[in-house]
Amino acid sequence: MRKIIYWVHVSVDGYINGPKGEFDWPELGPELEAYSWALNDRADTLLYGREVWTLMSSYWPTADEISDDAHAKRYAPVWREMPKAVLSRTLESADWGARVIGGDNLADEITALKQQPGKDILLTGGAGAAGALTEFGLIDEYHIAVHPVVLGGGTPAFAPGTDRRTFRLVDAQTCDARTVVHHYELTS
């Protein structure tokens, strides 16, 4: 069965974005970028919550044309080609060929997606999507990049009210002498 891999950047105080929604603080040095590419190479499907989808689908389709950033030039074509799914209770359709998954049968639809043949599924960012999938026990690996910044507010990595969960640390890696990536598996 395919795994769902959750890949998220957080501040030291546990937020995935700043008080005004800003996401300009993660620094993607060469080691962290290599870590990210290794996760991406394991996957053949990208999974997003609606809010992250809105950001990703507004940037990545043309990022290689509008940015001089080497990462954008390398990743945009990969992003365009890879199958995508969006978790949403409000979207009826999504562009870029993305499949919308939502409603009352979320757990069943995600379980069916995991049972399809192929490589793993990469869930990038998003507290709501990660919280819902964690609640159903559907995320297999958590890769949490902790950046050396305190944001003082914003969206917490896991939505408030998420039931208590226990993780097992699989690995921890320092990247670029500044960011620590924790790799966890859910134990309960």
Protein architecture, described:
The protein is α/β, with parallel strands linked by helices. The protein has one domain (31-181): Dihydrofolate Reductase, subunit A. 31% of the residues lie in helices and 27% in strands. The protein contains six helices and eight strands; from the N terminus they run E-H-E-H-H-H-E-E-H-E-H-E-E-E. The chain has helices at 30-42, 50-59, 63-66, 70-81, 106-115, 127-135; strands at 4-11, 43-49, 84-87, 99-101, 120-124, 141-147, 167-175, 179-186. It has an eight-stranded mixed sheet, sandwiched between helices. The radius of gyration is 16 Å and the shape is globular. 29% of the residues are buried. The mean pLDDT is 92.
Q: What is the count of structural domains?
A: 1
Output the radius of gyration: 16 Å
Strand order of the largest sheet: 4-3-2-5-1-6-8-7
Question: What summary fits the major beta sheet?
Answer: 8 strands, mixed
Which whole number gives the mean pLDDT?
A: 92
Q: Keywords for this structure?
A:
188 residues; Dihydrofolate Reductase, subunit A; 8-stranded mixed sheet; 8 strands
Q: What is the fold's blueprint, element by element?
A:
Layout: E1 4-11, H1 30-42, E2 43-49, H2 50-59, H3 63-66, H4 70-81, E3 84-87, E4 99-101, H5 106-115, E5 120-124, H6 127-135, E6 141-147, E7 167-175, E8 179-186
Parallel strand pairs: 1-5, 1-6, 2-3, 2-5, 3-4
Antiparallel strand pairs: 6-8, 7-8
Short overview:
By secondary structure, the chain is an alpha/beta fold.
